[in-house]
From TrEMBL:
GO cellular component term, pick one: cytoplasmic vesicle membrane
Disordered: region residues: 1-146, 1102-1202, 1207-1226
Chain ranges passing through the membrane: 213-232, 449-470, 477-496, 508-525, 546-574, 586-607, 671-689, 864-887, 894-914, 920-944, 965-985, 991-1013
Family: Belongs to the patched family.
PANTHER family recorded: PATCHED-RELATED (PTHR10796), SSD DOMAIN-CONTAINING PROTEIN (PTHR10796:SF187)
Keyword line: Membrane, Transmembrane, Transmembrane helix
Protein name as catalogued: SSD domain-containing protein
Regions of compositional bias (Low complexity) in chain numbering: 55-66, 1163-1176
Biased composition (Pro residues): 35-45
Length: 1226
């Protein structure tokens, strides 16, 4: 027969009374250590499986223990009768044990219980829901067999606790290096917002658990409001060109605001030498003929004939009429006809380039200068300047603005037909039509929206697979589907906010959906993983969802409020339509995500967690499971109890995420990280400094489209003649004044001297030369007549006719323009160049405006950087004030601002190395991606600050933070990138640019999360741990009082966490403050067991042979050894039941329920420390045979002193419980 837990002749586990439970008490900030040193912990005893010699050898335990092991004195009377009696007693005990075992097996089979009490799961299994000891209330009216089963479980709990206590060796406990580092400081007066959120979420958690359908309906109702704006503007539900949203409707001419008249007269025509194709003009058409062979020339007879024939057919539509074409001045029309004639004669005559001289008639000897640079491209000249080879011919058509839609469509059809029919050998013909350009862009946008369907499929697959756990109990695919639905709802809500304006859909707003997806994945999976993270003890699902929302949701809500207010302010501060739509979309999508997180996802988290608690696998749809949960403990919200519950529920076992957190802050890797991060930031700064603003029409066209080929060929053949700046003096000035003339010349010379321009074309400079060589007297009265009547009509200067506008009386120049031919530097740095010359003109009092026709939108180029910096500046201010107001953590605010600035700079900087131009689309995406960065930083810092009191070191807090946020952050940074991949099927440059911005932003955010944030937080905690008492600051980890202590008896075979035992609602015991003594620093309290709950003191005897022991004797015989017989009479059972009912009313007196008919046993030694009640005397029980255990010296104290022993917490360990099958049972 195997030995019992208490020795060779020890008691049966059913009847022995419990050893001392372990009570863990929070350290208090004031008070002194007790005068009596803490007791040593008894050594490990033998288990029930060991033999008798093994049990007897336990007396030789470690010398570190101060409790002397009691030795059994030899039996005084040893007779054959006594030996026979003991033998019969043992046989009867064995027989009763077998009967009880058979009865228990039968009951288990009848009830079809899933878990066998004799088998204990490992840590990798469902440790969160191992059956806990029933509470006092639920066991009062049970039958005897259930009481005996409860006793078995209680004995197992006691054995597990005893094993844990005995494993602690005070001599080997060392104080950890860097222990008790300062945590995150908080401004106490700003904690009201978080306190309100926490209390609100506690109430919402209880409401959600009890009213699931109502919560879901509230979320759906909020989502329904997102359809109000689309319903009111349903006539705009179509995709059109995005340029009105991106570039705005204002003119691209930039002025310095001096003397500008809103109704200024326009120029008669454009200067032929300075004309450029306007791609977004709906009245501009063009045809380009180009040679297929690079060595061939376009100026040959068949090509010229094809050119002239096509131009004649298009010019004279309808037949023999030119009513559709724009008519310019007589000189302009003459020049156009002359160009056509020269091209027609070009195979026969030699032509100079870019200007040639021809006679206007056969009889005239005067030569006229004609500009050919706008019609002939790809020209190579010889030493005399004559054209040796030309590769392209261009014809432009400009329709009238007053054409009807029917006339415009008629012209377009005629244009398409003629260009399709015209052909020539070895000649490629390309046409440009604004209608075709629009159709191509819109088709590419529609393709992008079609590809979004595949993005949704990828997101669904990830959410579904990401919801599976390590086993079928922790897998929640239904929750994954609901997460997918929530992300789709948030994206739709963000897209619907663009209808705040009475404009068509902004088709390039959809990239904000990927930011929404990242934020949603972080929040929703963080909420899902919280259920499994707080699984160290069983707790009622309703209380658990309320706890999760109250503890973790305030951080989510605070970050949501920060993002919503920040992006609303950004949208209100700027004027660009695309930016405003994107920022309002981010704000609305984050707001609906918060609503669905609280009212929708929490419901399914609760349902999935309840099914897991009931022991139901995810595919067992119609199975109910075990619905006997532990009773809820916290009837009302209590902050101290909430944080204590966190420490007891936290599963702090080693895991991969904690290992990552420990790795990134380890001293060995810290300095290499600093070096790599420094290089990373340095290259980002270099790229940010050198990045440029650029936007082109071809960014919105597919790679294989004919329109993109036309634009590229045009820039290649005529690009050198189209890169110029048009400077316009917008009002009348004193042109005859030499000082004014010198000011204008200084502006021109500055551009040439700084390398922005190669030459200046200025009619005023030519007139100054003309004035010096002229015989006319030029004064203020004769200046305008000389210019109008003498200067402009001359053959040399007639090319400036279109650059000067006179008033109706021809007495004053009210408008004029000049030109600067740009260099590559000037075009690349056009924004700074234009800003400089406008400032110079304003300083000199010249009303100047600037335009660069070759740029898609000069106003965009000038304003995009200003708008972006204004929006980001507003964001920084809002992040500072709102985050500090809601969370009250200066360290969080500082890290939030630093990370936001760094991530945006790194995104823009590395976009330069990846050939991504900065424009309104890419910069808006970078600013929108900053929302994900802010959410990651807030999640990191909030988790660090809420790590609890058990995380005493900064390194351990960072490990806790990685445990709480690493996997959700990886999902938030990686999944949006993977989801974006189907859009790359649409080979449009703007899609590639957006994808690169998403990748850069996600990479920068992840790098900061992994390397910057942990070490910055470590520096704030250890290196810069300053005091801020002037701000009424307090350390979060120490500023919450917890005056309650928790008795807990863990289930056998489960992990025991030394720094915070699991909270069981049936064993809460609050000690009044006057009875509490201050413990030694860094010690946890071990309380003695309640005086009325003593098991395992006397030897096991049968029910009929036991003698009744009075309550007084039982109260004063905790350490006595002897035989006690007690008869379980009905009267005593009623008395015991009434006593248990009285104890159930007052939990503060004791926490153990008195089991029916406790047996007194003879124990060889005490298994746990005991303490004596103040003023009581412990006397040996004289009527029992056997020796008495001496009182341990470690428990001697002065009379009346409230003393508690303390032990130093040890590292997290797991000690397996005993095996029940081999123990004796009644």
């Amino acid at each position: 027969m195997s030995s019992s837990y208490f020795g060779a002749s020890g008691p049966d586990p059913i009847s022995r009374q419990s050893p001392a439970a372990v009570r863990f008490q929070r350290k208090v900030s004031t008070g002194s250590a007790p005068t009596v040193p803490p007791p040593a912990v008894p050594p490990p005893e033998s288990s029930a499986d060991e033999e008798e010699p093994r049990a007897s050898s336990n007396n030789n335990y470690s010398s570190t223990s101060t409790v002397a092991a009691p030795t059994r004195e030899p039996t005084r009377v040893s007779t054959l009768k006594r030996e026979e009696k003991e033998k019969k007693q043992k046989e009867r005990m064995e027989r009763e044990r077998r009967e009880l075992e058979e009865k228990r097996v039968q009951e288990d089979e009848m009830k079809k219980e899933e878990h066998n009490h004799t088998v204990h799961p490992s840590l990798g299994e469902r440790t969160s829901y191992v059956e806990e000891p029933p509470s006092t209330t639920t066991t009062l009216d049970r039958r005897d067999r259930k009481a005996e089963k409860a006793l078995v479980r209680r004995i197992t709990n006691e054995m597990q606790m005893a094993t844990y206590v005995q494993q602690i060796d005070l001599s080997t406990v060392k104080q950890p290096v860097g222990a008790y580092t300062q945590g995150v400081f908080r401004i106490r007066m700003l904690r009201f917002a978080e306190a309100i959120l926490r209390r609100t979420f506690w109430a919402l958690g209880k409401f959600i658990a009890n009213h699931k359908i109502v919560s879901i309906l509230v979320a759906l109702l909020c989502f329904a409001t997102a359809f109000i704006l689309p319903t009111l503007h349903k006539e705009h539900l179509y995709i059109d060109l995005p340029f009105s949203h991106i570039l705005g409707s204002d003119s691209d001419v930039i002025s310095n605001g001096i003397g500008i008249s809103p109704k200024m007269q326009e120029f008669n025509s454009s200067n032929p030498a300075f004309s450029c194709m306007k791609w977004r003009d709906s009245n501009r058409f063009a045809v380009l003929l180009r040679t297929m062979a690079s060595r061939d020339t376009i100026l040959r007879k068949d090509a010229v004939l094809a050119y002239t024939a096509l131009k004649k057919k298009l010019d004279h539509f309808p037949v023999e009429k030119r009513e559709f074409m724009t008519q310019c001045s007589l000189e302009c029309e003459t020049d156009k006809d002359m160009v056509d004639r020269i091209i027609k004669k070009s195979p026969q005559v030699a032509l100079t380039y870019p200007e040639t001289f021809v006679s206007m008639s056969k009889d005239s000897t005067n030569l006229t200068r004609v500009y050919l640079g706008a019609a002939i491209g790809g020209v190579e000249t010889d030493t005399d300047g004559a054209i040796s080879k030309a590769t392209s011919l261009l014809m432009n058509f400009e329709l009238k603005d007053d054409l009807t839609g029917k006339e415009h469509n008629s012209w377009h059809r005629h244009f398409e037909d003629q260009t399709r029919l015209t052909a020539a050998s070895n000649i490629s013909l390309m046409s440009w039509s604004p209608e075709t350009f629009k159709d191509t862009v819109v088709a590419s946008l529609k393709d992008q929206y079609w590809c979004l369907q595949f993005c949704v499929i990828i997101l669904f697959v990830f959410c579904f697979l990401g919801s599976f756990g390590i086993n079928a109990y922790q897998s929640k695919p239904c929750l994954g589907i609901m997460i997918f639905i929530t992300l789709v709802v948030g994206s739709i809500t963000g897209l619907s906010m663009q209808f705040y304006r009475d404009l068509p859909v902004d088709p390039l707003v959809y990239p904000i959906c990927f930011v929404t997806i990242g934020i949603g994945l972080l929040w929703l999976f963080q909420l899902q993983f919280s259920w499994s993270r707080y699984s160290s003890a069983a707790v009622h699902p309703t209380e658990k969802i309320a706890f999760i929302l109250a503890h973790d949701a305030p951080g989510i809500a605070a970050s949501a409020v920060v993002i919503v207010l920040t992006f609303l302010a950004m949208g209100a501060a700027i004027q660009n339509g695309h930016m405003v739509s994107s920022f309002l979309g981010i704000a609305s999508s984050v707001a609906i995500l918060l609503v669905f997180t609280v009212f929708f996802i929490s419901v399914f988290v609760f349902i999935g967690g309840s099914r897991e608690a009931r022991g139901v696998k995810w595919y067992q749809i119609f199975k109910t499971g075990d619905t006997h949960f532990t009773a809820p403990q916290l009837a009302s919200f209590d902050s101290a109890s909430l944080f204590s519950l966190h420490d007891r529920l936290l599963d702090a076992r080693p895991c991969a995420s904690r290992a990552v957190g420990a790795f990134v802050i380890s001293p060995k890797i810290r300095y290499p990280i600093i070096m790599l991060c420094t290089a990373y930031v340095f290259f980002a700064i270099y790229g940010f400094y050198n990045t440029g603003i650029d936007i082109k029409e071809e960014y919105f066209l597919p790679a294989g489209s004919s329109e993109k080929s036309f634009i590229e060929q045009y820039r290649d053949q005529f690009g050198k003649t189209t890169q110029f700046v048009e400077l316009t003096i917008e009002s009348s000035i004193e042109y005859h004044d030499h000082e004014v003339q010198n000011n204008i010349f200084d502006i021109m010379d500055f551009a040439i001297a700084e390398g922005y321009a190669t030459r200046a074309v200025n009619w005023l400079a030519e007139f100054a030369k003309f004035e010096k060589a002229s015989i006319y007297d030029v004064n203020p009265d004769t200046f305008v007549p000389v210019v109008n009547l003498v200067f402009l009509p001359s053959e040399t200067y007639r090319k400036y006719t279109s650059d000067i506008v006179m008033d109706r009386f021809q007495t004053q120049i009210i408008k004029s323009r000049m030109y600067l031919e740009l260099t590559a530097k000037g075009f690349a740095e056009r924004t700074s160049f234009v800003d400089t010359i406008l400032k110079k003109a304003a300083a000199k009092g010249i009303p100047l405006s600037v335009d660069i026709p070759s740029s898609m939108s000069l106003r965009h180029d000038i304003s995009v950087f200003t708008s972006g910096m204004l929006a980001f500046g507003v964001a920084i201010v809002m992040l500072f004030f709102v985050s500090l107001l809601l969370l009250g953590q200066p360290a969080l605010t500082v890290m939030l601002l630093i990370t936001s600035i760094a991530v945006l700079g790194e995104t823009v900087g590395y976009a330069y190395f990846w050939s991504v131009p900065m424009n309104i689309v890419t910069l808006t995406m970078a600013l929108a991606g900053n929302a994900l960065t802010c959410v990651i930083v807030i999640a990191f810092c909030y988790s660090y600050s809420m790590s609890g009191k058990s995380q005493i070191r900064a390194g351990v807090r960072i490990q806790y933070t990685f445990q709480a946020t690493l996997v959700p952050v990886l999902f938030a940074c990686i999944v949006p990138v993977l989801t974006f991949l189907p859009l790359l099927y649409v080979d449009v440059p703007v899609v590639n640019h957006l994808f690169k911005i998403v990748v850069l932003n996600a990479t920068a955010s992840l790098i900061h999360y992994l390397f910057f944030l942990p070490n910055m937080m470590l520096a704030f905690s250890e290196r810069f741990g300053f005091s801020c008492t002037s701000f009424q600051c307090a350390e979060l980890c120490c500023d919450m009082d917890d005056e309650s202590s928790i008795y807990y008896i863990p289930t056998g075979g489960r992990a025991i966490h030394p720094e915070g035992l699991y909270h069981h609602p049936s064993y809460t015991y609050t000690v009044p403050k006057p009875l509490m003594n201050a413990p030694p620093p860094h010690y946890l309290a071990i309380a003695a067991p309640p005086v009325n709950s003593i098991y395992g003191q006397t030897e096991y005897t049968s029910r009929g042979e036991m003698k009744r022991v009075s309550r007084r004797n039982r109260r004063h015989s905790e350490s006595s050894i002897g035989e006690t017989e007690n008869d379980g009479t009905p009267g005593r059972d009623r008395e015991s039941r009434r006593r248990r009912q009285r104890r159930a009313v007052s939990r503060d007196s004791e926490i153990y329920e008195d089991l029916p008919s406790p047996r007194a046993v003879n124990s060889s030694r005490s298994t746990s420390p005991r303490r004596q009640q103040p003023g009581s005397m412990r006397r040996p029980n004289n009527h029992h045979s056997g020796s008495q255990n001496p009182r341990p010296q470690a428990f001697h104290y002065d009379e009346g002193a409230q003393w508690r022993p303390y032990v130093q917490p040890s590292p997290y360990m797991f000690y397996p419980g005993p095996v029940y099958g081999q123990q004796q049972r009644r």
